[in-house]
Each structure stands twice: as structure tokens, then as C-alpha cells.
Amino acid sequence: MRKKLSVFLFGVVFLATACRGFGAGSDHEIVPEYVLTYAENQAEDYPTTLGAYRFAELVKEKTGGRIQIQVNADGVLGDETSILEQMQFGGVDFARVSLSPLSEIVPKLNVLQMPYLYTGAEHMWSVLEGNIGKDFLNSFEGSNLVALSWYDAGARSFYNSVKPIRKPEDIRGMRIRVQESELMGRMVEFLGGTAVPMAYDQVYSALQTGRIDGAENNWPSYDSMAHYEVAKYYTVDEHARVPELQLVSKFTWEKLTPEDQKTIRQCAEESARYERRLWSERSKKSEERVKTKGCEVVELTPEEKIRFQEAVSPLYGEFCAEYVDVIDAIVAAGRER
Ligand code: GCU
Q1: Which residue from 177, 179, 196, 242 has its CB within 8 A of the most atoms of ligand 1, so it is best to mutate?
Q2: Among 110, 141, 248, 283, which has the highest number of CB atoms less than 10 A from its own CB?
Q3: What ranges in the chain are assigned the alpha helix state H?
């Protein structure tokens, strides 16, 4: 009987200690002032997702746990177009999105994703990190979105399930998935294909069932979404470098103090530097991996690459007539390098 009582008393004491130590009122636990959502449509191990986690970690650390950001990867909160809509009403706080769907809301951004605009990654980064990039970050007036920092997404190329693409004519008649972006649709049309706009997570099954013949994306996406399994011909035409942005809803932004806004911006920038490092490693790894999985890589001859550029050049007149000076400045920055 005595033994039973002491076991019982021990249990009560243990429970009381546990409640004090780990319970809601614990000294160690900081009750956050804000718990904010972050949408990401890539997989957990993808560079942009890892960048998002780094961002959340930094914000938590720098605000002493007052602001906590919950990263939702794998597109669980919706595709990019619907995430942008939700953010415009404050339904989602943060996201990392590709510039293509975002340009439908802020059309000026098309300038930064024009086909064959940059001579390479370094040229693009010199533009984004310089005054031109800063001006673009400040051109979100009226969109209900605030831009925080640029993320890398390499260069996009075409791939398909039908045959190797060696020249622009090979795309003729093909049904090619594009992002939900008018510019990307027109680009495929100039190459003689039929553009099929579709959300990213639908592409695998559309390739598998033959609803589309091909798509276009960078190495890590082609690898991560396993598109190489259903579209093995990848042509390194690198028609566009489409950077990505970390964004915050204006509704969320305006709730925060200027000091917290400054901290968040700095954390976003730091996470972007981290993402860029991860990006270049992942890009090489993905390229190697898909080659071992049966992807057939086609390199364009310099002559055919020029023919691709010429075929899509009318897009500059269609989408950038108002921004000729910016385009000129970007091209000039490339020549200086
Ligand atoms: C890239 C980008 C995604 C985008 C996708 C697409 O993978 O990182 O954010 O959704 O392209 O082609 O839709």
C-alpha cells in the first residue's frame, strides 16, 4: 500500500514539474506575435525551399521568436497563380514565385525575362543586383504585393517526348506547356508550336498522357519533377533566364513596424545569397543525374542558336515597346562584361 502511494505521489510531482517545464506558461517559451504563412511550390529539398527555411529561421532568430514563418512546400497552398491572388487579399503572407506568372500582375517585369536577353548568369545577376534590379523591386505599386529579394532559377530550355529538337522548325506542330504567362505563350507561337498554359504540378501527367508533347524548364525542375521520365529529349537552347522573387503581401507588410520590415528584408536578402549558392550546386547535380536516367541531351550549334534568337525577337516589340531604354541599358551592361 505504502509503495503504491509513493508511486502515486511521484507521478503527481513528475506531472507538475513537466507542466511547469514544457507547458504553455513556460519561461523558455516565447509566444509569437505573428505566425505567418509562406508558400513554395517546389519540393522540400529544392534550393528555393531550403532558402525559404533559412529565411524563416533567420527571421525567428532576429526577432527573438516574435515573428514566426511557416513554410509550406510542395505547392500545398496552391499553384503560383492562385497564391498570387491570395496574397493580393492577404490570404497568404509570403511566397517565392517565378517571374512569369507574376508578370501578369506587374507587366513591366516581362523585361527581365525576355528570351536571350542575358549573356549568362553573371550578366543577369549584375543587372538584378544593380540599380535596374532595385528599380524593379520598387515597381510593385498598386499590386498589393511587396518584393523582397531575387532568387536564382538558372536558364530554361525545351524538352519533349517526341524527338530531339535541333532547330526551331522541330518545334513546329508540337504542343508545348508554358507557364501561365502571355509572354511565354507567344514565345512558343513564334517558334511554330501550340502553347498550352498550365500549372507546374500538372505537367508530369500531361506529358505522360500525351496531352502535351513538351515543356521547358531548368535542370533542377526537370529533375525534381521527374519530367525526364516522360520527356527524354532535352535541348540546351537556354531561351530564357527567368529569375524568381520572394514576396510579401502588402496587407501583412503594413501590419509590421518599420524596424521589423527592415529585419525581414535583410533576412530575405541573406536567404537569397544562400539560395544562389545552393542553386549552382543543384543545377550541376541535376544535369548529371538526368543524364544517367536516360535523358538525351541536344546541344545546339551556334548557327541554330542564332536562328532560335531570331525567331523569338519580335517579342521585344510586342512586350517591351515602352521599355526600350531599360532593355538597352541591360544589353549594354552585358557588353561591358
Ligand atoms: C520553375 C520555378 C517554379 C515554376 C516552374 C514552372 O521551376 O521555380 O516556381 O512554377 O518553373 O515552370 O511553372
Answers
A1: 179
A2: 248
A3: 2-22, 47-62, 80-88, 99-102, 121-129, 131-137, 182-190, 203-208, 219-224, 250-255, 258-292, 302-312, 314-320, 324-335
Q: Which residue owns the Cα nearest ligand 1 atom 3? A: 98
pLDDT-based confidence at residue 28 (cuts at 50, 70, 90): low
Which amino acid would we find at residue 249? S
At 199, phi and psi to the nearest 5? -70, 155
How far from 325 is each of 103, 184, 319, CA to CA, in Å? 19, 22, 13
CA 98 to centroid of ligand 1, rounded, Å: 6
Question: Are 268 and 275 within 8 A, CB to CB?
Answer: no
Which residue in this structure is represented by grid cell 517526341?
162
pLDDT tens for each residue of 156-178: 999 999 999 999 999 999 999 99
Task: Give the chain's mean pLDDT.
Answer: 93
Q: Which residues does a 6 A CB cutoff place in the pocket of ligand 1?
A: 41-42, 80, 97-98, 153, 179, 200, 217, 221, 244
Joined grid coordinates for residue 94: 509570403
